[in-house]
Specification:
Blueprint (H helix, E strand, L loop, with lengths): L5 E5 L3 E2 L11 E5 H11 L12 E3 L11 E4 L2 E8 L5 H5 L3 H4 L8 E7 L1 E4 L3 E4 L7 E3 L1
Parallel strand pairs: 3-4
Antiparallel strand pairs: 1-2, 1-8, 3-7, 5-6, 5-9, 6-7, 9-10
Length: 137
């Protein structure tokens, strides 16, 4: 996972240039606040890239998001489920898999419903017509 200041999301496809496209896992999203909780539980700082998610958001709770529409800048992600940790997490950092095991701690995955370019600092919010929690990419 290489950090980049902006990416293009393509509707029905995924991230432009990504080796893994299609299916229901176009994009994986991780919450910075949940990641910090994981770090505290492990007693050490770990780069979020160890989680291997595509997008890191801040200020928005991703829990229980299945079926919701996540707005990232001008793009929309149809949330299909919770990203569960695999054995690669312990290869990245000892104990990381267990630390990511609480519900939704590993983030979410979804399909790109509306494409667009997203960049660091773009707004992130739930697209449900209700004015509430807003964060950023």
């Amino acid at each position: 996972m290489d950090p980049t200041p902006r990416v293009t999301l393509i509707a029905g496809h995924g991230i432009e240039g990504n080796a893994s496209v299609g299916g229901k896992r176009h994009v994986t999203v991780l919450s910075l606040e949940r990641w910090r909780e994981v770090e505290r539980s492990l007693g050490r700082t770990i780069s979020p890239s160890a989680r291997r998610a595509n997008v890191l958001v801040s200020g928005i709770d991703l829990a229980d998001a299945r079926g919701k529409l996540l707005r990232l800048g001008s793009a929309r992600i149809a949330v299909r489920g919770e990203t569960r940790p695999c054995e690669q997490m312990d290869e990245a950092s000892s104990g990381l898999r267990a630390a990511l095991s609480p519900p939704w701690a590993g983030g979410l995955f979804g399909e790109v419903a509306v494409g667009g370019v997203i960049a660091i600092g773009d707004p992130a919010s739930w697209d449900d017509g209700v004015a509430h929690q807003e964060g950023s990419v």
